[in-house]
Design a protein that fits this description.
GO molecular function, one term: ATP hydrolysis activity
Strand content: 5-15%
CATH topology of the largest domain: Rossmann fold
Shape: elongated
Structural class: alpha/beta
InterPro entries: AAA_22, P-loop_NTPase
Number of domains: 2
Organism: Salipiger aestuarii
Protein name: AAA domain-containing protein
Helix content: 40-55%
Length: 336
């Protein structure tokens, strides 16, 4: 039987989820976003021009960065921006639609073809050969006037494969960029391991225009991150009473997020949600500490928002334990 306590927990959770979802809709334009947008727009507009002149060989783009750097959100935004801009300027003779698919864990050519075909709206049935699926994909790309294929998690194309399998995968998909009558551009996103796949095939390397998301630094990225956090704060009606402007806060925030912009935004959203849930009017380090704890379940001594020695904490780890004085009673979450 559902108890009043259970219903109260559910209502509290729903309220917090609604607040978090509202903040999740924010998008922050960064230098990397502008750079990859230029790359994607450039290769797609070049494709249109080249096909009009009967030239089949096309270029592609790649966005590589660690998990939590915001690359998937960034690429989704760029794809939407291109498609909307193409429609607003009269469309494109050779198509403007970009179809996105996630590279399956086993990263076979067959499974990846099936994943792309499903996203196009053409699911395959039965056990088909690789040649059949590639030919089917080519026909559907032309039939639906698709300009580019976006493959996400491209690092999985090489992680579990042999050298031969990786080469075969790269060759199959780069050939889609050059074989007529309907070559498409290839757009890749993945973690840092994706560089291995891209560099494995010299021809693919030559045809791609890559952008790598580097670790944040206070000097280069501090103003951008502060601006993003301030916009999120404004969306909640809370105040930070100057917290975000403190000299030490941005380096601390970046370290807590393992120097990844997307993760820093997520931690900020969770901290603001904690403050709203508790009925506070301002967000403090304690809210960030709680958000970090919920995200990692690490001991307080290894919470950068609580420890004076935060620079020595490995914030890429979850469920980290501080083994000294393990029998001591847990202290309340307050900055040391």
């Amino acid at each position: 039987m559902t108890t009043n306590e259970t219903l109260a927990v559910m209502e509290k959770t729903r309220t917090k989820a609604a607040a978090t979802a509202a903040l999740d809709t924010f998008f922050f334009e960064t230098e990397t976003h502008c750079l990859i947008r230029e790359r994607v727009f450039s290769v797609l507009e070049a494709r249109e021009t080249r096909l009009a002149r009967g030239l089949y060989e096309q270029k592609g783009a790649a966005l590589i960065g660690p998990a939590g750097s915001g690359k998937s959100t960034m690429m989704a935004r760029v794809i939407r921006e291109y498609e909307e801009a193409a429609v607003a300027t009269g469309g494109r003779e050779f198509g403007h639609r970009i179809v996105s698919a996630i590279v399956p864990g086993k990263a076979s050519v067959k499974d990846t073809c099936c994943a792309v075909l499903r996203e196009i709206g053409y699911p395959t049935k039965g056990n088909r050969t690789e040649d059949y699926l590639i030919d089917c994909l080519r026909r559907q790309l032309q039939h639906h006037h698709i300009a580019a294929i976006h493959l996400d998690e491209i690092q999985d194309a090489g992680r579990y494969a042999t050298e031969e399998a990786m080469s075969a995968f790269a060759k199959r998909f780069r050939n889609l960029m050059q074989v007529g009558p309907w070559p498409v551009s290839l757009i890749l996103t993945g973690t840092s391991e994706g560089r291995e796949f891209i560099n494995h095939d010299p021809t693919l390397t030559r045809r791609l225009r890559p952008v790598e998301i580097l670790a944040m630094t206070p000097e280069a990225d501090g103003p951008t991150l502060r601006n993003a956090m301030t916009k999120l704060l404004a969306g909640t009606g809370l105040t930070d009473e100057g917290l975000f402007c403190l000299a030490e806060f941005m380096p601390l925030m970046m370290h807590a997020a393992a120097y990844r912009f997307g993760l820093a935004v997520e931690i900020t959203i969770e901290a603001l949600s904690e403050a709203l849930e508790m009925g506070d009017v301002r967000v403090t380090l304690d809210h960030f500490a709680e958000a970090y704890y919920v995200r990692t379940n690490s001991d307080d001594e290894l919470n950068p928002f609580l420890s004076e020695h935060w620079r020595g904490i490995d914030t890429s780890r979850a469920m980290d334990r501080f083994y000294q004085d393990t029998n001591a009673a847990k202290k309340p979450r307050k900055r040391k």
